[in-house]
Design brief:
Blueprint (H helix, E strand, L loop, with lengths): L4 E2 L9 E11 L4 E8 L9 H12 L12 E5 L18 E4 L8 H16 L3 E5 L14 E7 L5 H14 L3 E5 L4 H9 L4 E2 L8 E6 L6
């Protein structure tokens, strides 16, 4: 793989993979982990298969050094990919799986997803949810969360305080203020007790390109 470049570089094509990496920092601006994105695909083509390919390509990358160092990796996943055997290839203690909400937030489907989330957590993986799961229908999910991400571009300032209090009451998760793009957004999040941060105000994503390694290989 080549030296990382800014993630604004055009996506890879053909048999190339393009993995973007964005830092997640603590209040002392120490990097605690990196969120990884597959930039070789459009966002709307994110599937269980592409989740597996992303993980295989991370694992194939020269001991992960230019991507991860010894930091935790945050990986977006679909609910379907949580059942994939590709997760058996990695040590779970350094992996956070970012799980999306259920489409439509239907209580029946939310309940149906709980056993798989519980099993993934039992295997040692950490789970991250978005602030959309800080709602009553997801109450049974919240104790499983290690991290909850708060989107500073979407959330209204007056909602942050009750949201933080709800998270503290119903989960033991650490909150991450994501999409932090201004000093004002950072200060607002910090003022309400959020201690982890991600966004362009701290670090832009960098892109690492290389040859695609398919799971069959």
């Amino acid at each position: 793989m080549t030296t990382p470049t800014e993630a604004s570089t055009p996506p890879a094509t053909g048999d190339q993979t393009a993995i973007a990496r964005q830092a997640i920092l603590d209040e002392g601006r120490n990097v605690i982990g990196y969120e990884l994105y597959d930039r070789s695909l459009d966002a709307n083509t994110h599937t269980a298969a592409s989740d597996a390919e992303l993980l295989f390509n991370v694992l194939s990358h020269a001991e992960h050094q230019s991507l991860m160092g010894r930091k935790t990796m945050f990986i977006n996943c679909t609910h379907e990919s949580l059942a994939g055997r590709h997760l058996e290839l990695i040590h779970p203690e350094r992996v956070v799986l970012e799980v999306p909400p259920v489409a439509g937030h239907g209580p029946t489907e939310i309940e149906a997803r709980l056993p798989m989330l519980t099993e993934v957590k039992r295997k040692g993986f950490k789970l991250a949810f978005s602030q959309l799961m800080l709602a009553r229908p997801y109450a049974a999910w919240l104790p499983l969360a290690s991290y909850i991400k708060v989107d500073m571009q979407q959330i209204k300032p007056e909602v942050i305080d009750p949201l933080v209090k709800f998270a503290e009451k119903h989960s033991g998760a650490r909150l991450i203020a994501e999409k932090v793009e201004t000093a004002e957004q950072y200060e607002r999040a910090a003022r309400h007790g959020i201690k982890l941060f991600q966004g362009y105000w701290f670090a832009t994503p960098v892109l690492v390109k290389g040859q695609t390694l398919r799971p069959a290989q």
